[in-house]
Design goal:
Blueprint lengths: L6 E6 L14 E3 L4 E2 L2 E2 L5 E2 L2 H11 L6 E4 L7 E3 L8 E2 L3 E6 L6 H10 L1 H7 L10 H5 L8 H40 L11 E3 H4 E6 L10 E2 L5 E4 L15 E3 L2 H5 L10 E4 L8 E3 L6 E3 L3 E6 L6 H8 L2 H10 L10 H5 L2 E3 L3 H40 L1
Parallel strand pairs: 2-8, 13-17
Antiparallel strand pairs: 1-9, 2-5, 3-4, 6-7, 6-9, 10-19, 11-18, 12-14, 13-14, 15-16, 15-18
Helix pairs in contact: 5-11
Amino acid sequence: MKLNEVCIGITDGSHNPPAGIKKSEYPMLSSKNIFDDVLTFDEPRYLSETEYEKENKRTCVNAGDVLLTIVGTVGRALVVPEGADNITLQRSVAVLHPNYEKCRSRYLMYLLQSKRSYFENKARGVAQKGIYLKQLSDVDVNICGLDEQDEIIKLLDKTRNIITVRRKQLEQLDLLVKARFVELFGDPVTNPKNLPVVILRELSRLITKGASPSWQGFSYTEDSSQTLFITSENVREGYIDLSSPKYVEDGFNEKQNRSMIHKGDFLINIVGASIGRAAQFELDCKANMNQAAALVRMDDNRIRDKYLLVYLNSERAQQMYNSMKSDTGRANLSLQDIADLSILLPEVNEQIEFETFVRQVDKSKAVVQKSLEETQLLFDSLMQKYFG
């Protein structure tokens, strides 16, 4: 059965989105707002009521419809929740209107999520790769009876909910670390302890960024023995998220050897809505990155990793990122901006005290993380069982 046989309609968003207005009740979203089972409203384009009515004739988004990213990062899918049906979309998102006599919305969502690798391999384009609606409509799908769909949804939802709980537990532990940071060093925004200030360039020996594989003539691969490829989506606040890893051919490292990631390197997002998220790469494996994040390799014994990681994600750092970023087209920071970041520098012994506390919290995080990974593995195996 083809995908268009279980939908009463498949379309995409606006190819020529209006300029928009400052604020309204009609947000126009793009692929950056669509995650697996999560709809965000970060930096939308707001439309007037007249513009909304015009754009809505094309997409006609209703609660229960399934949204799928089809340009850029393809294959993320969610079900439109109740109360969010006043949205319109840009070209990077497809809207699928399920035929409820054949397919449940959440079943269709999970089915599409299971085909992410397929969509990535089929995506075409020069500046940004994407999936055409004709390709999407012709995708082969296996559809079981509605009762069986309900059972599958129930099991997958339960497993994903456990994953969500574990992630929230990790967030709470991170908040504990931030509270201890302020207790020891004061509010980094006001610097009440008058800590000395240095710039990041003085503490590092390399600040660089990567490139897009397609620009260098390389392709993504499903072979996990090849090079792990990190993008800004992987760089979360304080950690590297590899729940959906990407790999690129090893030859990319030879072409882009300057941006090969070493264990201990810091990565800071420098493009788009996630500007300023920072994480430390703690794996000992082949890895490289694209141009949406800066790589910082430290080389100064006056600063400790645990302290720097929290500082780079602090409110003071966020204020610096916001003051520096250019909003020409898509918001971005330059490598010069990263090099010029002001770093508060406490005494090393105080940083070590903080580091000891963080290591204790990390032990608790490791337990939660292990449970998260086991549950994620179960979820992935269930997806393979039902949709593989």
